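Me: Here is a favour to ask of a fellow structure person. Could you put it straight underneath, so I can go through it closely?

Assistant:
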Amino acid sequence: YLTQMTSHVGRLENLRGLDFSGAPKLNDVRFRLLKLTELNCLHGFFPANHGWTLKELHVLRNLTSLQILRLGRASSIEDAHQSRLQEMDNLRELELCCSSVDQPPVDGQEHMKDVFSALRPPQSLFSLKLDGYYGNGFPAWFSVSHLTALQRLTLDGCVHCQRLPALGEMMNLKFLAIIGFSLLTEINYEL
């Protein structure tokens, strides 16, 4: 298994796609994203003590697809704010993923909701996936007034959420998957 990545990758200034999603043991990333401004697809990004911070994402203005893994390791809400995802006008696909390994105790649920709130996507987002989210409610941006272009939504493993957002108001939605909501007992006005 791939466990670390060399600093030389950070020199590939013309790189358009970078995918580490198939490297679950990768924990040590020794390059910065600052010169990779041409990237339009980044999958497998993760915040780490020996690697990237969420604020490094702000330079990647050409991204159309972004997958962030292991969000439970994101310790700083300020870093999440500084990612400035809402300013990424080209971003169409976003996956925000937590790992069951990284889930903190119950008091960490509010912190996770705050991190997700700070990762506010642009209104032009076409596809959104929340995977393994363990916040106790959805962020304020998760609404029809903000996600006006959303057509594809996957909510997977949101185990502490008892209610869905008002999905029935998302008129552009063409695909919806709701998987693994262990506390959700009823769907009424949400759809």
Summary: The beta strands are 4-5, 17-19, 28-29, 41-45, 65-68, 93-97, 127-131, 152-156, 175-179. Residues 108-118 form the longest helix (11 residues). Helices lie at 77-82, 108-118.
